[in-house]
Each structure stands twice: as structure tokens, then as C-alpha cells.
Amino acid sequence: MVDQEVLDGTLMALTALERPIWRPHRIPHGSGTYGGRSPPLGKDAMTSTQSISPRRRHGRVAGSLLLSCLMLGILSACQTSQNLQQPTRLAAPYSWTTLWAVAPLVNESGTSAANTIQITDCLTEELQQVKGINTVPVTRTLTVMNKLRMRAVTTPEDAKTLMDTLGVDGLIVGTVTAWDPYKPPTLGLALQLFTHDDRLNSPRTDSLSDQSTTTSRAGPSAAAQAAGIFDASDHATLQSLAMFATGRTHPSSVYGTDIYLMKMDLYTKFVAHQLLEGLLRNEQQRLAAVNDY
Description:
- The protein has 11 helices and 6 strands.
- The protein has helices at 4-18, 41-50, 54-83, 116-128, 138-147, 156-166, 197-200, 209-218, 235-245, 259-262, 264-292, and strands spanning 98-102, 106-107, 133-135, 170-180, 186-195, 224-231.
- Strands 1, 2, 3, 4, 5 and 6 form a 6-stranded mixed sheet that branches.
- The protein is elongated.
């Protein structure tokens, strides 16, 4: 908030600049055509008006415009600070910080125009925003996959190999099921979460030695899944988008929350956030079921 005295002082300065400056034209006593007498009022007023130079008039106008811009900037800053809101954030269902990676998504959308690496980057950026989860850069994951001569993660065994090589606690794999960047955009993803049970399960699961041995011999399985197609022409999708965009757009933006409908990378982050929310919720339910076992 701006102090009221500052606003009042600025307004007084603007008012003072807008007042005409009257300066009488001095005539030496005893000289001129009036014989020492004061000139008529009309003459004096005309002379004083003519005495204001164009440069001085321009200076007053420039100063008035400058203070007006300053006032608008102050009022805009006040309005911006009052309209700031906190965005909704996701949190991991663990009591410690874990390290996850995202494998490059596989394109099953039916169009070759979908850039799966860019979509994977957006998904990784949103995952990094989750409280309690750190992420491995996609470039590092790609480098390790090239060394392993692994073109894609297609089996649970591939997921386990990649997780062990990267040294991560969790790995997200998935596919792009729908992709249309034209307004209204459409994006569909199907995600699976693979985890190391000995790292992410609660301590109570350590006593389930028989079950852990059976799982490791049979190979890892997806701990949680989430999938969905988000069509921006659907009103339910638009309502979810409005909630997500709150606190994530500039208050003075002329586009508002519609900016997420105009840029596909922003819309991809919205879809990633929605599916990560479902994925983490399913993982939390899995952990609760293990603890209750």
C-alpha cells in the first residue's frame, strides 16, 4: 500500500504544474511612454502572457506528463500487489525427499507432429514443482538410455534397469494418447509410476520379506497409474484450468488465464499437473493399503 501523504503530495504537484504562471512585466520607473505611470491593466496582462517562453510551457507540460506516468505506475503497483495469489502445489506422499526421473514418452497419438521430448520436458518441470520430489534432467535420462542402447522403456525390466543406472527412487513412463495444438487444444497422456519398494515403502513393509522376495523375482510392477484426455472445449476441463492458472499468470496480463489456451507448452504443463495429482493420490492410497496390511 502507498502512503496517503505521498499520493496527496503528488496530486498537489500536478495541480501546481497545471496553474498558469503570471509574472508582471517590469518597466523602469519614469521611463517608457507612460511617463512614470503604471501601464493599463490590459496591457500589463498581455505583456505578462507574452513573457512566458515556449520552452517554459513545454517544460510544464513535460513535468505534468512525467508525474502522471509516475502516479499511474504507483497505482498499478498497488493493484498488482493486492491481486497476487498463491498457486496450488502438489506434495509427495513421503516423509522425506525422493529423486524421480521421467522417461521419454512414447507417441501413440496418431500424429507425428507431437514432440514427445518437449512434452516430457514439460512433465519433468511440473514434477519438479512437487514438494518432496527432485527430478533428473531429461537430457541425462536420454544419455543413460543411449549408453544402455535402450530406445524406449517398454517393459518393467527396462524400467528397473534404467532406475538402477540413474540411481533414482521412482521412474515415470508413459505415452501420448492424443495431441491437437489448435484452439481449443487437446492433450491426452497415460502415465505409470515405477518405484523401488525398499526405498519408497514405509518402514512397516520391511517385515514383509516373503512378499518383497516374490515381487523382486517376478519383476517390478507399476506402483500407480493415471491417464486422461483433456479437451479444452469441455467445460469441466476449463474449470480445472481456471483453478490451475490462478496464481500462475501475471495479474496485468491482457490474456489472463486464456494464455494457457494459446500456448501448447503451457497447456501441456496444466495437463501434466492434473495427471501428476492423480498419480500421487494413487501412490498415497497404495502406501496406505500396504501399511494397513
